[in-house]
Amino acid sequence: MLSAHVHAAPPPLTGHLVPDRHGDTAGRITVDSRTLWRDGTPWLPVMGEFHFSRYPRADWREELLKIRAGGIDTVATYLFWNQHEETRGTYRFDGDLDIRHFITLCHDLGLAAVARIGPWAHGECRNGGFPDWLETAGCTPRTDDPAYLALIRSYYGRIAHELRGLSVFDGGPIVAVQIENELYDQPGHLATLRTLAEEAGLRVPLWTATAWGAAELPADTVLPLYGGYPEAFWEDADPGWARGMRRHYFFTPIRDDHAIGADLRDAAPRGSGPDNSRYPYATCELGGGMAIAYHRRPRVPAPDITALALTKLGSGSVWQGYYLYHGSSQRLTHAVPNQESHATGYPNDLPTVSYDFQAPLGEYGQARPSYHALRAQHLFLRDSGADLARMPLTLPATEPAGLDDRTTLRWSVRADGDSGFLFVNNHQPHEPLPDHRGVRFSVSLGDRTVHLPAGEVTVPSGAHFVWPLGYDVGAGIRLEWASAQPVLRLTVDGTPTAVFTATGGIPPQFSFGPGTEAVVPPEVARTDRSPAGTLVTVTAPGTAAELTLHGPGGTARLLVLAEEQAPLVHRVHCAGADRLLLCADLALTDGDDLRVHTEAARTGLSFLPAPGDLTGPGVSPDGTDGVFTRWTLTLPPTATPAEVRCLRSAARPAPARTGGPFRRASAPRDEDFDHAAVYHVPVPATALDHDGELLLRLRYTGDAARAFVGGRLVADHFWYGPDWEIGLRRCAAEAIEHGVELRVLPLAPDSTVHVGPRDRAGLDAARTAARLHTAHLVPVHRATLRPHPEAPGTTARS
């Protein structure tokens, strides 16, 4: 029996953070040492980073709708100084640089916003976002040098002008401003930057700064934010997993990570970092993926991301912030390339164009498996985040002995009073954890001890989940515990309905006290009654596994979906009500419209409760799916092979060069691509005759590749395993006129480049070959459907 004892936590520290200098209280957001509060209610933000200036303005709204549909309620974005003031004294906030328009769109869509204003930002941007002219400006950057502060005062003043009226204090969406980034030893300067920003007119309830690397921050002046990644492109090209990343798959009260950005520090951390007893555990850079550098190219699958995110929740996080949540592209309109590179003094060479980051939403808006898998967690946080936000961390009696302990089960409890959540993580990248057999938990909550499940179970390798302890199903019915993951609660036909998913191949069990009667279909569940209460074991989780519960306060339902259905779950508000939607594709709502982005020729949509009707091209009713009503969306065929013309098959690798302070492998230069294998892919005039993106999906053997349209570089790629995808919508007319030219280089025999073990053979093949194998044109249809209500009075759970 694995045991944990929850002790009553002392009251949180309150009133110690320096407030807004104007003393505003409108749109009140406050912070104590444990929790964020919004208008008197605990608030657990789910934040995703999306760089507006690295994405076409015309697409911002649709991409923000996708972000919202993924369960994100707050959008963070960088402002890169060298984009807004590339020429000294000339500010640009127009077109794709229009931060005001972007933040206004966030507001229109009900999303909170966080502005990361720098002035030093990093974000794999040239000079960390500093303009080139700063080098000769006669000042000492990142200090309180008056000459430098004068430049910042002007820049902050222009940012404040652009963002006027958009603070939550004014009814807008901006809840926080981050000053600087990864500044470790200048607490006084950080305090000065906050003062300058406030004097310029920026007024927000939360001022934040990154705290990893034992950063010295001005006490109670900024809220420390932390991070953690599943991999690290900034490590050397050694063959193994970046060791420091292991820590993020253990439950621990330790928030810091000295590994993030360590290659940009000239010394090991000297301080102890913030006093975290004074601040809630908040994050801004949980790895939504990982960038690809030339010398190190880690592939990050979805479970690496979801397990990390869940482990941070189980470690006490009350602010889940992802970097990146939406991929993007480096700007190509500047006088010099805008990416981090050896040429600009960085340790790493990044692609000239691509900043995809393997993010949940890709460089061209593609919905990745991680997008769908994270959404299930985010639905849980939308539903239970206010409860979780007040619950401190409790670790079990037996913890792992260290980063290399792969035999002790990793678990934790967050609880408050007699209710809480039990977290389990049995996944980590690269080095699979073993199955754990004979597992049963004992959790002491105040004056009661909960034993779960009813008998010993096996927690399989890779499983990671959260189970409830003392959970309000609805209608006053209390669930004592469950061995299944809560997802959401809503009201269906007037009856409260709680939705769970099975976890880890473990039989879903639900324990109720003696006052609750459970009516279950015998083909999906069995019931065991005793004087202590009722235990329901669901034997066939899925769309038909609905239980009816009767308690003293009324009736509720409990729906138990299969584990593989968790990534299909959407919560959509359409036809006047919140509805549960099962769909394998990205689905979002835009006013009264329901929109589906899909590559598939056929996709199913199962609703609970059902809208009265769905109208739109290609949609038709398709009967029932358990307790759901199903429609099928039929679209034109997808993924047609493209014609590939080989213009030159011979290729010569770029010389094996090194650069940067650590002499890591350098990316091929522009002139090296004159000796690449060259291919041409025509784009038919009809290929873009649909409402959505058109992906050119390529499979090749090579080290690095570039794509040109009409002689203009539009995309580039360092090979790391997955197919290369290029979105053609943003250059549609030119692509139809000229086609796409692809240049592929082999890898120099003596180059030192890291990829994961599963991809090693593919990269080794590039030492002797550079070849485009296949090309497909893949339309991502954007189908708009209009639902109509069936039953008035169907409402969401409040």
Automatic annotation (TrEMBL):
Keywords: Glycosidase, Hydrolase
A GO molecular function held by the record: beta-galactosidase activity
Annotated ranges, domain Glycoside hydrolase 35 catalytic: 36-377
UniProt enzyme class: hydrolase
Region (Disordered): 1-21
EC number annotated for this UniProt entry: 3.2.1.23
Similarity comment: family membership: Belongs to the glycosyl hydrolase 35 family.
Protein name, UniProt field: Beta-galactosidase
